[in-house]
Amino acid sequence: MTTRIAPLAWLVLLFTVPLWLRDPYYLHVAITTAIFIIAAMSLNLLLGYTGQLSLGHVAFFGIGAYASALTTLGFEITLPGGWQLTHEPWPPIVGFPISVIVAGLCGYVIGKLSFKVRGAYFVIVTISFAEVTRLVALNWVELTQGPLALNNIPPYGIWLPGLGVYDFWDKTAYFYLVAVVAAVSYLIIRRLVNSRVGRAMVALKDNESLAVSVGIDVTHYLVLAAVVSAAMAGAAGSLYAHYVKIIDPDIFLFIYTVTMVIMVITGGKGTLAGPIVGGIIFGFLPVILRSFASPAVQWIIYGALMIIIVFVLPQGIVPAVERFFERRRARAAAAAPNPDAVER
Amino acid sequence: MQELLQHLINALILGSTYALLGIGLTLIFGIMRVVNFTHGELYAFGAYAIFFLESSLGVNFFAAIVIAVVAGCALGALIEYVLLRPLQTADIDTTMLVMIGAWIVMQNTELLYWGGVSKAVPTPFPEEPLQLGPVFVSWLRIFVLIVGTALIIGTYLLIDHTKLGKAMRATFQDPATAALMGVNIKGIYTATFALGSGLAAAAGALLGPVFLVTPTMGDLASLKAFAIVILGGLGNITGATLGGFILAFVEELGAGYISSGYRDAMGFLIIIVVMLFRPTGLFRQAERIG
Are B101 and A307 a contacting pair at CB < 8 A? Predict the structure, then answer.
């Protein structure tokens, strides 16, 4: 019974946010938080379910943002050999699927290459990929405008029957859009991890040699996870680009990967709700902190929190809360008198 | 030709400090199996320490370098004692997350205390560069090369010819057996981290006056140190030394002849290429990855 009602209640709560969060600033925070939660959920697929600490995740977020913005704004580049490649601006809504596809393809290539190594080496290779994409975005000025940034990225527009083209200028409308993408991403991840694929991932996280010995094609599943994860991060990047309407190479900074990692670790890696809980905490924490703390102090608090979480709640908040309730239920069951005894 | 010589001599000087960074990280990485994200911050700490000692306390340049290195060792020992010792049984990902947290705290503390504006460190060396045939080298850079080389040799002597070095090598090979032979593993870990941190601080104290001191200078230093360690192979000191010089030559020549914008990308490209084709590093025969 509760398993049917609970998801519905969460959905209702999610979609009524603009009704009780009237302040435009808070709504803005809610939108960026939701975008980062999508990115954190996608990272969790790699970090939590396959156990690979990918610290280059922001690359896919940034690639998605740039792919979407460039599709929308158009570009003209000279290829080696004097070839001219001109792309006329396309409608912004096309940028969304393109960002998903481009980020997914990058996930495939980078995954194929990076999963040749494990552990510390994997971490460093993924960071390197992210840094290289940042430096390309910074230096390929003809395509990306480099540090000048891509400006005036138009909002998405969808064609509605009878209404014509509707542009997402409005924050409330944008929140709903992001919420729909977030809900779909959540469902995809839930479907994936509860399937054969998800069980294979968990198996190889727990014991890779054993998983291989029973015939699980490790690289296949890892690359699959990387593609889904990258595509989802790309979608988040596209949502971000068309929301803030300006992107520059700083979008690739390592600190954003760290933000996503903190969200996943705090909430609980390898749990469906973990990135959401962590995302809400670290999405809204700046709102509380900014009244008395400068950005540097905020970051010091984040870093300290990260250390404390690893020491105190190594599994994250969600598993800790689950365990607490389980223990209480068990205690309640033990303490409750025998129903037969109550009769008398 | 003259341009090439100039690039080579610059690379040699840069390489000596990169080698210091790499040796420090490869010791920590190899002996403790900790991916040390604070390494670059120790480098930045060394640079800020010399700036602070000279500008605010009026300490002599040469004394300031010595104090910066000693303070770097002390800070490293503190980090190890507080953050890593309780996590000795934890897996590599857990310690990595803690080190990332520590890195964020350290970098932003520097930002908070010294602000975001780059600082120039005054030096006692004459402005007039030394002319060596067709190339010009500043006296400061010569000093950096000499001190850097001396520290590299010193580290070699420490590792190869002292009891501490022997214990470190034993711990690197097999911590459990080393412990059975009476090596104080915990002490070795602290000493290793302090030594590695001191070398990073030395690199920062030497390069800080050459370039400018900024709060984010540690980020690239960390990642370049990773590149050097990967290039040389895990825990391989000779590999790290050569790796430091190779990275410096690739960067310097890449910036000079390909594109200066991609100077900092060279390290990452090296990481990616080495990992894909020779994941054990250039100078090592067999080491299990993972």
Answer: yes
Q: Are A216 and A51 in contact (CB under 8 A)?
A: no
Maximum distance among all alpha carbons in chain B?
Answer: 58
Mutate to test the interface with A, among B108, B117, B264, B278 (most CBs of A within 10 A): B108
Nearest CA in chain A to B83: A307
Q: Band of the pLDDT at A215, cuts 50, 70, 90?
A: confident
pLDDT of residue A43: 93
pLDDT over 50 at B286, yes or no: no
pTM of the model: 0.85
CA-to-CA distance for A167 and A243, rounded, in angstroms? 12
Please judge whether A120 and B104 are an interchain contact, meaning their C-beta atoms are less than 8 angstroms apart.
no
Which domain range does residue A155 map to? 25-335
CATH of the domain at A76: 1.10.3470
Q: Within 10 Å of residue A2's Cβ, how many Cβ atoms?
A: 7
A28 reaches B (C-beta below 8 A):
no
Asked if A121 and B230 come within 8 Å (Cβ–Cβ), the reply is yes
User: A residues 35-94 near B, CB within 8 Å?
Assistant: 53
Any domain includes A207 = yes
At B275 the pLDDT is 79
- Least CB–CB distance from B83: residue in A139, A302, A307: A307
> Which tokens in the block code for residue B27?
């010791």
Tens digits of per-residue pLDDT, A71-113? 888 888 787 777 777 777 888 888 899 999 999 999 999 888 8
Counting the structural domains of chain A, the total is: 1
Interface test with A, best of B28, B87, B95, B105 (most A CBs within 10 A): B105
In whole angstroms, what is the distance from residue B247 CA to residue A90 CA? 43
Q: Best of B38, B84, B97 to disrupt the A interface by mutation (most A CBs within 10 Å)?
A: B97
Q: Which distant-in-sequence residues (6+ apart) come within 8 Å of B145 by Cβ?
A: B12, B13, B16
Residues 6+ apart with CB under 8 A from B143: B125
In-domain check, residue A343: no
CA atoms of A264 and A261, how far apart (whole Å): 5
Identify the bridge partners of residue A83 per DSSP, sorted by sequence position. Answer: A79
In chain B, where are the structural domains located? 22-216
Distances (CA, A) of B45 to A344, B4, B37, B67, B77: 75, 33, 13, 12, 14
Q: Cβ of A296 and B105 within 8 Å?
A: no
Q: What is the mean pLDDT of residues A194-212?
A: 84
Kindly state whether residue A8 falls inside one of the protein's structural domains: no
